[in-house]
Fold each of these.
Amino acid sequence: EIETWINNAGFGDFDLVQDINLGKIEKMLRLNIEALTILSSLFVRDHHDVEGTTLVNISSAGGYRIVPNAVTYCATKFYVSAYTEGLAQELQKGGAKLRAKVLAPAATETEFADRSRGEVGFDYSKNVKKYHTAAEMAGFLHQLIESDAIVGIVDGETYEFELRGPLFNYAG
């Protein structure tokens, strides 16, 4: 039995829309949106009435504000954020035992920049003013899972982590 499902697969792109590689964008849309939605739906189908289960989808601070040169990536993460927040509220309103949550990190020292930029060896300490380590982000993820919050978000300016209720309106 799976108690917690974390959808962390995804990658970014840091090109102007006019310069994007369409093949790369197609792969990004399939992974960041399509795969996440299908895997989330399957987990919800199987675990919505299982006590103590949690689904966490990884978005981005770029899923709540548009980052220059990353419009398409941010759009995929807006989807992840809106989808997961809506799902969380749908589950709550329906009395499901499964909880859905969204983690929205900002720059985190991982291989993400290498993949997004098509480079190897991106040095966060030389290229990014503020960032978190993977260990710090794992701690934020743990805080989110253990909390009653739906959203765990890193403020893109202060880099402080905050646990919140939904940021998108739910008409239900």
Amino acid sequence: MSRVEQSEKLALERIIFIGRTFEEYMRMFSLSKEELKGKKILDCPAGACSFTAVGNHLGFNVTACDIAYYHSREDLKKKGLQDIEHAMEHMEQVKSHYVWDCFQNIDTLRKHRLRALNECTDDMKEANERYVPVTLPFLPFKDAEFDILLSAHFLFTYADRLNFDFHKNTVTELLRVTKEEVRIFPLVDLEGNRYEHLDKLITDLTQMGFVVEERKVPYEFQVNANSMLMIKK
């Protein structure tokens, strides 16, 4: 590992390595398989999500990137298992913050999170080149390298610890590496409140020449997390 990588690598204990399934992604981002055909797609940050693994097995062209990928597959698998169990224990106390239409109960949720983790880490063993370590707000990709970029459960979710400049710089970087569009989900923070600077961000992006739309999606697990931001170039 280079000195740059060492300096950028986030301590494993500070990473939460939990992911969503391919099916959840399709609903979170209101996607159809037809839309993905022939497209080069980036999932950023992808964490333990299985969209890349399953997508490529279905014949799509998907790359994942995340700061977590500076760590080994074995360490991430172990951390993911620990994080899922911790999250499920905590879930009992906050069940009312969630809509239980997608998952019948916490046991069903656990099975989905474990499936995502297993599919992700199994694919890392098969095709590690798909999993690129990055440190936002910078990406090691060329301008317009991807057609579509999907970004889930990072921007806006952590509004309490990521300031507006970080959000704007990151979104600008996501757009730099994307040819057609960026989709960001959800538009609320961990408390279920709409990101307080979202209107300012939309205005700034519109003034930069992008077409920006808030769109409802056919997915809601966290209460109020049922919309995505679609930014078209």
Amino acid sequence: MPGPPPAVAAVRAEVRHALTGLDLPDHAAVVVACSGGADSLALAAATAFVAPRLGLRAGAAVVDHRLQEGSAQVAHRAAAQCRELGLDPVDVVPVEVAVSAEGPEADARTARYAALAASAHRRGAAAVLLGHTLDDQAEQVLLGLVRGSGSRSLSGMPRVRPLGAETGDAPSGTTTLLRPLLGVGRRTTARACAELGLIPWQDPHNEDELFLRVRARRALADLEADLGPGLVVGLSRTADLLRDDADALDEEARTAYLRLGGPPWPADALVELPRAVRTRLWRRAALDAGSPGTDLTSQHLLTVDRLVTAWRGQGPLHLPGGVRAGRSGGQVWVGAGPSARRATASAPASGTGVVPAPDC
């Protein structure tokens, strides 16, 4: 008996590999996030085929952002296709997208992940599957390069992480966010849909150059036409390599934080650390003090680092969110304005010892 068409087989293989890698218990529930587009529809079809054969229960969640006319009809059509594929239960989740300074894409993403977390919690799902592809990963890396971001941003989207970490929220219980298709491209998911007779929704936002990601997609296509094939794969491979590096540096910074305790920190101890570890300490301290991560740039962190590497008596530095950083008595502090400066008055002088780690 002939096997499935190549594109269908490729998507199923990625889903099977991703789900078996989680080592889920028998009869565990998973939820596919499906917009009705080719990527998520191909993912839904593959999960509906693979999950039962692994002893898992598979449903779907369709988030209606209500940002376009007719979005409810699109959501219900996607849900109907998921049910026809055998996914059960299938939720249609309308959301209100709150407007913020982060922009429409980020606002929609925040609402979407909150809705997916709620759906997963309601269904007791062990994992939520997203349809991001190899092309999405390459676009993410390209955007990071344009912004001049560090290795964490350039490492792109991880295949596995706790649900809630995408938006900076605390992980939602034991639910895992899973991206099985980061190893396959959009052409493969579109071909899989065609081979299965599925009709994907063509989101008009994917052609609207108001959105930065759409412009990045077109720029990537132009670059690949000029530089030759392999650019998308190369950028994705770069993301994987940089993620390993970023994970190692994050762990070293975590160890340093546990050893030093919370700020203020002795400058003579900080200068012994690699700059990549120090900037991670500055970022953690600033976030803990209330600085919004979306506004905290690498330039902010490098400026704080000069309090250690190029100290000339400069005054307190202003960071986003009313947070300040400064140096006094051989100690570098990061905190919420004047209160942080007062905290240094009782801090031990440089070289007298390590500030105890807080209980946490």
